[in-house]
Amino acid sequence: MPNEPLIYLNGKISELQDTKISPFDRGFLWGDGVYEVTPCFGNKLYRLQDHVDRLYRSLSYVRINPSLSPSDMIMETERLLFENRDRLDTDSMYRVGHWVTRGEDSPSMKTNDAGPATLMIFFRLVDTATISRDQSKGIKLSVSSVRRNPPECIEPRAKVTSKINQILAELDVANQKALPLMLDLNGNVAENSVSNFFMVRDNALWTPPDRNILEGVTRKVVFEICERLSIPLIERNFTMYDVAQGDEFFITSSAVCAMPVSEVDSFRPKQKVPGPITKRIIEAFAVETGYKFTG
Fold this sequence. Notes:
Largest sheet: 8 strands, mixed
Distance between the termini: 26 Å
Shape: globular
Order of helices and strands: EEHEEHHEEHEHEEEEHEHEEH
CATH topology of the largest domain: D-amino Acid Aminotransferase, Chain A, domain 2
Radius of gyration: 20 Å
Number of strands: 14
CATH architecture of the largest domain: Alpha-Beta Barrel
Number of domains: 2
Helix content: 25-40%
Strand content: 25-35%
Oligomer: single chain
């Protein structure tokens, strides 16, 4: 398809159908890699530096050398954006993926014998009409029986491609036509499978501390917005008992910015959806990004 965005793979920019990765790549064999997703509104990359910084924190954690410096990674991303200038709709939103694996496995299958690393960068169109519709009425979450991996096993702040923990949580609640809300091993609210969770109680925003959750870039923006708008924000542990008392709920990710939640199992927010604080956050993101989701 000639209108499909071009793909960056290991220094070369090619058509999608010409992009080839070895079946022995450790990303395919073992889920051995890390990734990032940066939003691109029209042709403007949003918070690319923050996403690349987190990518390199994850790479350091899993000991993968991408053979590019962070500044070179940004430069190559911008080069791919430029090469796609005639293929991207300037009124649309895209997810920009950075996937880095340890590279091709060796016959020994030993981790340290693999490499060099595989790096892919790509653009994918976002269904903004669905996001707009969901923002107007909210989405449903359901508590999954699958608990979030504890940091004693694997650091949740690292954005690794081994996503089976979150995938099982999604499958666990799929028949309820809901997205999962994952708890930690102690029963505290952690996060959605791909998003951070916030709730409003007594005019203050609550969100779990970063020990058991992904270190979200969009979560960081919410912190900045709250400081700018003088919205009290508290990082603390809380349980479903607290959720039952909640005034508003929303999740955040680079794909949706802020998304209202209309129900967590049978618990509904006391405020209308989206609630007043959630609405202020959504409006602040529209100013921050220069993009407003519309159907």
